[in-house]
Amino acid sequence: MLIAICLLALAVIILLIINVLRNRRNEEATLGGRGHAIGPSFSPYNTNSENLTGVTSSPEMVLSANPSSYTGAKAGGGAASGVGKLTFIKGDRAQFDLQDLLRASAEVLGSGNLGSSYKALMMDGQTVVVKRFKHMNHVGREDFHEHMRRLGRLDHPNLLPLVAYYYRKEEKLLVVDHVSNGSLATHLYGNDSRLDWPTRLKIVKGVVRGLTYLHVELPSLVTPHGHLKSSNVLLDNSFNPILMDYTLVPVLNSDQLQNIMIVYKSPEYARQGRTTKKTDVWTLGILILEIMTGRFPASYLMQCPGYGSELASWIDSISAGLDGEESDMIFDKEMGDMRGNYEEMRKLTEIGLACCQEELDKRWDLKKVSEEVEKLKARDDD
């Protein structure tokens, strides 16, 4: 009898251990596996270097444990000629095939609502970023190829150009060049970097120029960017901003858009179920206010639809603070000495608030935003 009780107790303990391990694996998969920092996607890069086909056991992060599943994996230029081909946008750069990519030394950069990103060091010395998307399995092959060609025609210093792409019905990869200085969010919230006022103004001007270019070149799209936020603004070594993850709305699954894309958190979508040309302006306004205050509402980046009360209250608090007796208190102290720059800083914050007007007829259009931002100067500007 005693032996039976002991065996039963041992079985219960084993079941509990198995359950704990299973929950831990599920939690790691939900967070993106190894290399993903808990929290917003602007967390510092993970430095673990591994082979791209084995960076993690999480199915959400790995490209494929079986490279042969990428049929016809050879490099190509120009128009796509078949499923399974790594297609390069331009033929004037060193090319590689998908097998080279799978063999490359890689590190996980992170995992977010859109998918996973890896930095890959190729054998020829190129460093690229591979972005694996979760929610693109509804788009057809020809529509996907045509949209990638459209992205490939874009050319602006404040846009991260597309290098190559891969299409399979169950798998979509975009390849871009690696920008070593990290994202704007990393610099806003990291411990080792400070952005002064002239640098922040420079960043805002570059973001506005890149966004304006998208709106001019892609007039048929309602929201030419669609996902503007600080973790999607990279910075080069001179702190020029480079926009990434733009113009993805047309190829993402429509049933997931409101859960993952920033423009679908706008007040007009919450109230009327639609976006407009001014919705990108609203996301720009949020970004400007974030740059000026050094903070943002945590719910803004959560995977949930809707224009939340926390976001509205955050915008209102900035507006009220700007009108208060100690209006300088709303600004991020990391910007440094405000003497000689306060009025320009105040004007930029007012522009951000004008972009965030809930009523569309009161919200500025992008042309007016661009004109007003270009007028601003930092004290040490020429």
TrEMBL record:
It comes from the Eukaryota. InterPro entries: Kinase-like_dom_sf, PRK1-6/SRF4-like, Prot_kinase_dom, Ser-Thr/Tyr_kinase_cat_dom. One of its GO terms (molecular function) is protein kinase activity. Keywords: ATP-binding, Nucleotide-binding. Residues 103-376 form the Protein kinase domain. Pfam families: PK_Tyr_Ser-Thr (PF07714). PANTHER family: LEUCINE-RICH REPEAT RECEPTOR-LIKE PROTEIN KINASE PXC1, POLLEN RECEPTOR-LIKE KINASE 1. This is Protein kinase domain-containing protein. It comes from Cuscuta epithymum. The lineage of its organism: Eukaryota, Viridiplantae, Streptophyta, Embryophyta, Tracheophyta.
